[in-house]
Write a structure and sequence with these properties.
The chain is of the alpha+beta class. It contains eight helices and 13 strands.
């Protein structure tokens, strides 16, 4: 979110006051996906009976150590995934979005973004790197805590991860706050928070059926989002914004609602979660509001993703085009992580070619045409207003000679002597 003043930036995102203590740490938005059935056990016919080996008792013989291979050490096959991420700061070196998290392996993947809240976290702290806002520090503390811990929790994609993440993030934020010099704000506001930040995280694990099915766990707090983009279906928002006014995505573009839940070091917060079953190929996207909050409609966000995909030759060029377009429209820091599963860049272009054309003809062109007409009419109206102001002045100058012929214009307000 946008940089805050030393205390609070009124234009930044505000946080609805939260009660401390009794709220749960995890909110289950949807029922969990049932776990996949375990593989069938071997029948007796499949096992060759034999004598039970005697235990090794000799002190000279040591058992072989058990080697545990991390699922993250098995790379994703070439040509079966696409990845890109970026972090755009409005002020170089002062951006309050942390760098996104993006990891991918053969059977698991992760995207996550963190948006420090510049209004609620505008208090400045002195650090060895110079003055930094609480929003800046909070986003990075949460990001580092998640990056350290979540790789140990995956690829198991289940609701127990969310509770562990909550406790890890909460402890990291409180520890980071304790390391900072105490600050006294000149402004007393219930909207102030210590190291406040949003989070939107999407974790995927390959299903055991080997049929291109993936389990997806989405975890979030605040108004950063995780999206799913599927061929033929377009973009779907997987997170529900934590805001006081529960409007839809279009309404949220027109009004700046208070955030009702965000992570911080001094206030209780909830991590929401949702589980979704996915079928490859798909794109999983985590983004802060600087990427989508300044566009005319949710359809334009999908168009931004797909048009830049179609006009790029590889993920690096796709990322560069996304950054260039977002920079021209956003009024905030912006960060995004994109993970595509089941196809390479060229294949995703082919898979989304029809959708890109349909999106343009059915939604984008009509909306942009109306916006053009509205802008032209507004310009005409502004021209007419200026013309009216000038015309009124000319007509009044001609009229006032007779109108004021008996008035003493040199000494207004004085009566005749």
């Amino acid at each position: 979110m946008s940089e805050g003043a030393p205390t609070v930036d009124p234009s930044g995102s505000a946080v609805e006051p939260l009660s401390v203590a009794t709220s749960p740490t995890v909110r289950l938005v949807d029922p969990p996906i049932p776990e996949q059935p375990a593989a069938e056990e071997l029948s007796a016919a499949d096992v060759t009976a034999g004598p039970t080996p005697a235990p090794i008792t000799s002190p000279d013989v040591e058992s072989e150590p058990i080697v545990v291979i991390s699922p993250w050490s098995i790379p994703a096959p070439p040509g079966e995934h696409v990845e890109l991420s970026f972090n755009l700061a409005k002020i170089n070196g002062q951006g309050e979005d942390a760098d996104p998290i993006l990891h991918v392996a053969r059977d698991t993947g992760l995207v996550a973004v963190f948006d420090g809240m510049g209004g609620a976290g505008g208090t400045e702290y002195q650090t060895p790197e110079g003055p930094r806002t609480g929003a800046y520090l909070g986003a990075r503390a949460a990001r580092d805590a998640v990056d350290r811990s979540v790789l140990q929790l995956l690829p198991a994609v289940n609701d127990t991860i969310t509770g562990q993440l909550h406790d890890t993030i909460e402890a990291a934020l409180r520890t980071r706050l304790a390391e900072l010099p105490a600050q006294r704000s000149m402004l007393r506001s219930r909207l102030l928070r210590a190291l406040p930040t949003t989070m939107a995280l999407g974790a995927i694990g390959r299903s055991g059926d080997g049929d291109g099915h993936w389990n997806c766990l989405v975890v979030w707090a605040g108004d950063s989002r995780v999206y799913l983009l599927q061929p033929g279906a377009g973009v779907s928002q997987l997170t529900t914004d934590d805001i006081r006014d529960h409007g839809d995505a279009m309404e949220n573009l027109r009004q700046d609602s208070l955030i009702s839940n965000a992570m911080s070091a001094d206030t209780a917060f909830v991590l929401n979660q949702r589980q979704v079953e996915l079928t490859a190929p798909f794109l999983l996207i985590a983004a802060t509001d600087g990427c989508f909050g300044y566009l005319p409609s949710p359809m334009h966000f999908e168009s931004l993703l797909l048009s830049t995909l179609q006009n790029s030759s590889d993920p690096a060029m796709w990322s560069a085009q996304l950054q260039a377009q977002i920079t021209t429209i956003t009024g905030d820091d912006a960060s995004m992580a994109v993970l595509g599963i089941g196809a390479d860049h060229g294949q995703f272009q082919s898979l989304f070619a029809d959708r890109t054309a349909a999106l343009e003809s059915r939604w984008i062109t009509p909306l942009d045409s109306l916006d053009t007409q509205v802008n032209e009419l507004e310009q005409e109206l502004e021209t007419l207003r200026r013309h009216r102001t000038n015309q009124v002045a000319e007509l009044w100058a001609a009229y006032r000679l007779d109108y004021e012929q008996y008035l003493d214009t040199q000494t207004p307000g004085k009566g005749d002597s």
